[in-house]
Amino acid sequence: MKIPELLSPAGSFDALKAAVSAGADAVYLGGKSFGARAYAANFSEEEINKAVKFAHAHGVKVYVTVNTLVTDDELTKVAEYLKFLSDADVDAILVQDTAVLMTARETVPDLPVHASTQMTINNSAGIRFAAEHGITRVVLAREVSIEDLAEIKKTADECSVELEIFVHGAICYSYSGQCLFSSVIGGRSGNRGMCAQPCRKPYTLLADKTEVKTDGEYILSTRDMCLYPHLDKVCGTGIDSIKIEGRMKTPEYVAVVTNAYRNALDSIAKGEFAPDTQVMDDLSFAFTRGFTKGYLLGDKGKTFMNYTKPDNRGVFAGTVSGVDEKRGKVIVQIEGPVPDTGDGLVFKCAAREARISPHGFKIGGELGKEVGFALNKEPYVFPEGDAYKIPAPADVTVGSELWITKRMQTERHASTIVSKETAGRVLIDVDVSLDDEGFMILSGYGVTEKSEIPMMEALKKPVTAEAVEAQIRKSGGTPFTVRNVSMNYDGTKFVPIKIVSDLRRRFLDKCLVKLTEKKERRSYSYQPKGSANPEAVEPLIQVYTDSVVCAKAANTAGANQVVYEGFDEIYNIPIIYKFPRITAEHELEKFISKIPASAAGVMVDGIGIADFIKGIPRYAGSGLNITNAVTANEYGKKCRQICLSPELSGKQIKTLMENLAAYAHPPKVEVIVQGSLEVMITENCIPATVQGCRSCNQSWALKDRTNRIFRIRTDTACRTHILNAAETCLLEYVNILSKNGVSVISIDARGRSPEYIRRMVSIYREALDGGDIKALKEQIRELASGGITAGHYLRGTE
């Protein structure tokens, strides 16, 4: 069975050292700029140089994340950063933005590029796009099933592209790269590394405007992935690299989790793997929100979500069955791991009206209240062996739950891993021979070294071949382990054994130099394309809809283009058919076959799908995250129209249009000016998770703590789409967009009525004709769902 690379997170230098000590084959880390985890400690350029030297000296590769979206005015800095990373000898970069990819290919063509999971590649179309653009590895979306993975792997092998998947750690609720939630509620874009994690916040679920009871209020909070018990099955897919999430986690977490997966991979290689309950305990104590097998192995709904707690929940230990008020202790019926001295404990108090005991103790506590403390004394064990008496705060009553949130044993285990010797990671084969003058020659790993003096005729006891091999295999204290020794010496000569020992040391020193020497890589200056004044245009009005009736209404209302999300053939109207924003591997050919013969065009949101569409005009949707002219032009080579990211400000759009005008054949450019912005798309069906399948015929929404209402739309593939609480409205800026060369303005009317469409088309038509913007905007307020906002157009994102 092929054993994949083990890739561990390094959010800090201490975490890097922990990963190396624990057995990682490679680490991934971020610099101070252009990385998708801006809140991790991250590495300065000096620290990156230091990290690469350290890792390479231990035979560990270093991949650096450059996986944010970038704007036109950042590309020069990106190019400088890429040159630095290439010179620093990092082993690969991870990218999201096609412009970063194109810049890397132009300026540092020998630096390997990996497609970040932020690229949302989940099918063969994305793999072919990656191969065409020189990407050597793709980190697949976490939502890929093991069945789809098998098919994707065939394409990847055909294209010589490696595949990487996550196997452990936190899971984004939305498809990575498709989440705008953080940016719309606070201006902090996940696509820019600034995610504020709104999926870990509390919400109330509404069905037809009525509150629905749920198991907890963290409706968007997922469990953590843990594929350790199923790692042999994962390896059976032939995957090239398995990845542990956690650049925001502690070095101790990195050590424990990496060590667990290292040992498991080594056992699989020997055919001896069996999941260990102690290892699962260690993984749980390292960090868990509750574990799931993830989408890869079919978990969905309640086995995937954790509505009760958005952060580390610890491990359930038992339930309070009695209270010793006099001594301030409780009796815990143990149902899990036994608490030990030094452990961090949390009691989740049972609901009960508070009262004061005769001894002055407060008894009872608030519903769900958590009381945490450290266990400083060894608990008393009852003779029966399944109940323990431990000190407890006064709020703890019968029925309260005891959870262990910090395990001293696991802490010690982590310290042992970090402090252990990290030698012997790099396997080398050594050839032993004598030259014509009798000097012993060691060769291997691309280096050669010979003994200081020649071997002599043995007068008494010769140095046997076995003795030489024993010396050669002593590689302790170095990154190397001698795997094979090819002996071309008959064992009849003599030399002091110290000569052989010194020869081995010098040989391994040369191997270390070889191991850590920088690769020779080409580097070229970045040449910006320049800019030009875009030609002012009269924009076309485009309407998005998901209803045949509404598509006809849009056409009747005078919309210049109608984009229909569906595959029903609509006769006598030029329809642009929109592929679903997410198209899984098993859906790709099916959807292509459904495109009506009468289609005026096809709009795609997934990377590479445009290449699968033949003989029909293609349009690039907002899901492709176009934030700069380089990316716009690249997609414009295949698509006649491209949609700009809704995260761009007006100023950034103006700059993009000026830079795009410098290209010989730029595509038409679309900006969405009206409608409920889709801020999340997820494989998890919220109605089905709460009430079972077939629950989506109601009107669903989420309400946050500020009473904002985020509507939920469930599509035919049971994917959930969460919409912004307020509608985007750029009515007063459409004429500025026109002057900047934007040729299509769009109204997203999916889920809205024919009347909404008719009035919105009329309002925007009147605005383009010089109508009273203030009066027209008041009409929009009456129609809009949840109010209106100019969104990022004015403030941009962080």
Description of the molecule:
By secondary structure, this protein is α/β, with parallel strands linked by helices. Helix content is 29%, strand content 24%. It is built from 22 helices and 41 strands. The strands form seven sheets. It has an eight-stranded parallel barrel with strand order 1-2-3-4-5-6-7-11, surrounded by five helices. An eight-stranded parallel β-barrel has the order 28-29-30-31-32-33-34-40. A seven-stranded antiparallel sheet has the order 18-15-21-13-14-20-19. A hairpin with a 2-residue loop joins strand 8 and strand 9. Helix 9 (251-270) packs antiparallel against helix 10, helix 12 runs parallel beside helix 13 and helix 20 (754-768) runs antiparallel to helix 21 (773-783). The longest helix has 20 residues, at 251-270. The protein is globular and about 110 Å long. Mean pLDDT is 93; it is low at 354-365.
